[in-house]
Give the backbone structure.
Amino acid sequence: MQSLYEDRLAQLNEEESTLVGDNPSHPEYLAMMECVDARRAEKRRIIDLEHHFNLRTLKRWGVARRGQIHAQFFQGVREKREIALEDLGKQWYQIQQCRRRHANTIPDYGFRFPTSKTQHTRDAVAYNKEVSLLAGIAKHEGFPAAPHIRGATGPEIDDDFEEIAVRDGLPSGLGREASQS
């Protein structure tokens, strides 16, 4: 029995020496390590793919989000520009309405020639009546009728000069002596 233990111990020591060295050569250990390495490689491959897909998804999400933000920004700018243009259009319309309203407030003093022959005849008759009426007034009452103005008399002129303190047609302070020299 002891030899059985010794054989078993030698076998275990031999297995231990195949496991403890720098390059283990134990067949079961190598088979397990191969399975572990394969499993680890598969997990690593899955993790790398998941990481790659997550990065691509995040990049696409970032581009889409940026596009959405730009679209919202430009839509807001468009709406504000449309509102501003609409307000400017309303103001321009009001300005034009005021301008048109006040454009024809100046009376038209032009003489328009009638287009129809009957109106031309009526206007000529009215003109001739007016001219004959004015000629009659000028003949009978004088035209233009203004009152007759007579000149001032000598005493009235002297009274006027005394009122404004002028003597002999000269201002006061300048007597005949000053005028003779």
Q: What stands out?
A: The longest strand covers residues 166-167. Strands lie at 166-167, 170-171. The chain is about 75% helix and 0% strand.
